[in-house]
Amino acid sequence: MAQSFDSQEIVMIIFFLALPLLFIIFKKSLIKHQSDDPPLPPGPKSWPILSTINHLLHPKTDHISLSHLSQTYGPLMHINLGSQHLIVASSPAAALEVLKANDRVLSGRYAPASLPKTPAQTDTLSFWADSTSAHWKNLRTVCRAELFTGKALERSARVRAEKAAEMVAEVMVKSKEGGGVAVDVEKMVFETVVNMSSNAYFSKDVDVAQFAEMLRGIGEIFTAINLSDLYPFLGVLDLQGLRRKYMGISMKMWELWKPILEERRERMDLRHNDFLDTLIARGFGDEQINHLLEDLFTGGIHTTTAVIKKTMIELLTTPTAMAKLKEELSAAAIFDGQDSIPDLEKLPYLSACIKETLRLHPPAPLMLGHRAYAACRVMNHTVPKNAQVLVNVWAIGRDPAVWEAPLEYRPERFVSGGADFKGNDFELLAFGAGRRICPGMSAAVKMVDVVVASLLSFFDWSAPHHLHLHQLWNRETSQFNAPLLLIPTPTK
Ligand code: HEM
């Protein structure tokens, strides 16, 4: 009878078949480091093969484990991941050396093996491209000069205001049903952020349930342990089928805007004042548009939703901060004007709350992996060519050497100045810094501001009796392990 293996078994079988090759790689890497270069950064001593087995059984490269390890090994660490070098920076000084002093040489992108593109496609089609490629430079220019300029963001302000107003109307209906009906705040915010984005990109709502399913699929692929990331020579085999799965999801996602794209090309009707018009007018091909929109959606939705959700949880569990923000919102009366676009510039305490959430709960806690184009020196250690380089933004945001009472939610620390997240202050790096800094930063902050301001201007929120926010919320790990169900009551 034919025997079938589960994916873990397949991984282990391939792994043991590959042992002789791994041994040669290990020997080669030992020889390489007996040179005059400064040593690799300190880190846990491990034999690459054992480290791989350990990693497969206990995936320990999340931001929390890395933060603990850095307390033993210091602000710049080296870890063997299979045949790959991983470098982790965990202090503002180390981050500055990675993202500023060595910005050029360390601004390659570490592209996971599950990406459904050949290296040539990556370099000509997507944001995962190396920062030396003409395509990536062009994308950044288009983002900077057209898609996310102050003017473009002003244009999309109306869309954000409309979608926020739809969300408020939906909650208002629920709040009047009586009996304290709870709203799934995360689900509702996700829907709002998706449609704020889709309308800025191509002026249409999308099927949010279908979209959520796609993003969930992509999230699972990225968090799966992929043997091909540990041993890139296995990449072509796609043993776990992750690349195939990702390709399937990508193609489904492109179908969402295909009819819109076709119609605009057919009629050459470019009067919508949105991203798609701009991209068509600049001569982008269909494939480039598909990849760019996919990258903007996958980069922007969960991150923005998470910041809104965690700001709400922090405010609900920190009543003094909630009271101050409510006071600011009611004094500014931002939703009372003639124009339907609220003026969010008048809200310094809101802005301080968002910064405080980004400090404690950055949604990309290790940023995205960078890659060393060439070997270089960081803090008197060698970063080998092709090493993956991570910055532990999460650990930096709670470093007691940098922040007073780091585990307290205290927006006041940002009220009269303090650090900003725009890439110049290396203690607050939620959006990264240097040439790879998040291109969607301003759009993200505008979405967060208007959603939080709307939720708190129109409603008071409380948790249902059975839901004990303080018990469910773990600020130390940034985890909230339940749907965020809250009861809205219209403010007087
Ligand atoms: C609060 C929300 C967000 C946070 C915290 C965030 C954070 C980040 C971080 C840390 C990076 C990696 C920086 C690096 O590697 O040095 C990044 C990259 C990126 N983000 Fe965001 N992001 C957010 C929202 C958005 C939005 C709304 C968009 C799109 C509209 C977006 C699009 C991208 C893209 C395309 C990249 C890749 C840039 C490149 O490789 O050149 N992000 N983001």
TrEMBL record:
Gene3D superfamilies cross-referenced by the UniProt entry: Cytochrome P450
The keyword Metal-binding is annotated on this UniProt entry: yes
Claim: Membrane is one of the keywords in the record: yes
Keywords assigned by UniProt, alphabetized: Heme, Iron, Membrane, Metal-binding, Monooxygenase, Oxidoreductase, Transmembrane, Transmembrane helix
Membrane-spanning segments: 9-26
Membrane topology, as annotated: Single-pass membrane protein
A Pfam family annotated for this UniProt entry: p450
The protein's required cofactors: heme
Location relative to the cell: Membrane
Main location: membrane
Binding-site residues, heme: C438
GO terms assigned for molecular function: heme binding; iron ion binding; monooxygenase activity; oxidoreductase activity, acting on paired donors, with incorporation or reduction of molecular oxygen
Gene Ontology CC terms: membrane
Family annotation (SUPFAM superfamilies): Cytochrome P450
Stored InterPro entries: Cyt_P450, Cyt_P450_CS, Cyt_P450_E_grp-I, Cyt_P450_sf
Family: Belongs to the cytochrome P450 family.
Name of the molecule in the record: Cytochrome P450
Organism: Perilla frutescens var. hirtella
